[in-house]
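Quick one: structure tokens for this chain, please?
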Amino acid sequence: MKIIGISGSPRKGQNCEKMIVAALEVAKERDFETDTVFISNEEVAPCKACGACRDNDFCVIDDSMEEIYEKMRVADGIIVAAPVYMGNYPAQLKALFDRSVLLRRKNFALKNKVGAALSVGGSRNGGQEKTIQAIHDWMHIHGMIVVGDNAHFGGITWNPAEEDTIGMQTVSETAKKLCDVLELIYKK
């Protein structure tokens, strides 16, 4: 089984990428195959709502999305990390989410994949739950199975994430729950 980690932060090597690496380390320890999409390394233009993907199996915008689509298609689980920007996730992640409409239009390609969310803010109550809820909304629109960390909505840290012991524990617990549900579904 394969889990993809998507960092929705435009900042290279920062909190979200560190959270994704930590979450995927949990998955690797349980023998899951892993892959990543770090928005900081990709070019993802905003959706133009041109409707071309209704008739095509590809998006007419020439950027990194075709590779990202394929990574999302083959994954059994998707974990998304996002920083809080003005109370929600950043525009770069919104562009990826908007462009994922192609996968929805192509027989709900993400349906029944297991999804989880992580978020980092500037303080303990810095908008992370709202950001996670918005990520969950995207997952629900695709028909995904959404999990939290067994007690809350998902992994919630504050900056700097790697120094937030309690927060990083919620990241690990979220990854464990994602693995648990995939194992239940696929009877590993």
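The chain has six helices and six strands.
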